[in-house]
Amino acid sequence: MKEIMLLLVMFWNVENYFDTYDNPSTKDEEFTPQGENHWSWKRFEKKRDDIAKTILLAADEYGEYPALIGLCEIENSFVLEELTENTPLARAGYTFIHKDSPDSRGIDVALLYREEMFTPLEEHYIASSFPTRDILYTKGVLNGLDTVHIFVNHWPSKRGGEKSSSTRRMLVSHRARQVTDSILQKNPSANIIHMGDFNDTWDSKPLANLDQLVNLSQYAEGNEGSYKYKESWSTIDQFLVSENLIRRRTSNTEKFLHQWLWCEKEMEIFAPEHLLCEDDRYLGAKLRRTYNGPRYIGGISDHLPVMLQLHIEE
Questions:
Q1: Nearest Cα to Cα of residue 19 among 64, 80, 67
Q2: Of 7, 78, 109, 311, which residue is least crowded by CB atoms under 10 Å?
Q3: In angstroms, how far is CA 86 from the centroid of its own chain?
Q4: In terms of pTM, does the model score above 0.90?
Q5: Which one, of 75, 54, 76, lies nearest residue 10 by Cα?
Q6: Burial (Cβ within 10 Å: 0-12, 13-18, ≥19) of residue 161
Q7: Per-residue pLDDT tens for 157-178?
Q8: Which of 169, 172, 121 is nearest to 144 (CA)?
Q9: Which pLDDT tens digit goes with each residue over 235-252?
Q10: What angle do CA 186, 190, 195 make, to 5 degrees?
């Protein structure tokens, strides 16, 4: 009988994970000691340690450290070094892939990976036709078994209105589709994972444009959503995967098709108690953010992490 090994993938928008230093090339002044948020080293350390705590809690919950972690809204490589080297997360052996993007605020995407489980072979940064976060593409070998194509996304927000922002998201979606199509044309059985904060739901036009992939957020388990706006939860943090990663059945039997890699649970929203607080205005729970307007409250993020379990037949 074949043994099944778990590989865990995590994505999280950690909301404004800035250092305390002013970068003259970006609009990060509010996250400096002199800025309107009075962002101090003590506050930075708390956010850094709480991000690490959440990843460690996920490892306890699932019985394994995530092999891959996609992050967005991180400022630079320095904050990633602090997270992976100067917190208890250091014992998990993470390193990372990151490059500064053209975003005006200086927030980027990054991929953390455990060196014993993932070997990068190449990386590219997919730019759009306007200044925004690049899509991080990494091709690598997952646990020495097969090639996986990983995309970390952070699409434009809805700031400025639904119509104009949807146009921007569609432009990014077209770039994502072009690269994804080129991979599938060369290898229709390629293992592809898009993860990210797409700032839209699975049934929106920009996400529907990636119809060569399976959007797992429509089957998400766990919390009501990964993001809350006023009284409404939605799942804008998502995994989209190629058909080859989905556990499928043959048309006339209950036997599974032979595959080395498959998703047992499509996608889960990870909602430990310390990421949530009571919503006095709209009732229920809400995300415990670092700031409520200009007021520091010491939370972590306005998004919940999302998790994907991959299982390897050994």
A1: 80
A2: 78
A3: 22
A4: yes
A5: 54
A6: exposed
A7: 987 777 778 999 999 999 999 9
A8: 121
A9: 999 999 998 888 643 333
A10: 120
HSE-CB at 236 with a 13 A cutoff on CA atoms is 22
Beta bridge mates, 191:
148
Amino acid, single-letter form, for residue 116: E
- The b-or-e profile of 81-106 (16+ CB within 10 A means b, else e) is ebbbeebebeebebebbbebbebebb
CATH number assigned to the domain comprising residue 200: 3.60.10.10
CB of 300 closer than 8 Å to CB of 290: yes
Report the amino acid identity of residue 141.
Answer: V
- In the chain, how many domains are there? 1
Report the C-alpha gap between 38 and 33 in whole angstroms.
4
Helix (H) or strand (E) holding 54, with range, is helix 41-62
Segments in the chain forming alpha helices (H)? 41-62, 77-85, 162-186, 205-208
Residue 164 domain boundaries: 4-313
As given in the structure block, the two tokens for residue 54 are: 């959440």
* Interaxial angle between packed helices 41-62 and 77-85, expressed in degrees from 0 to 180 and rounded to the nearest 10: 60
Q: What integer best gives the mean pLDDT of the chain?
A: 91
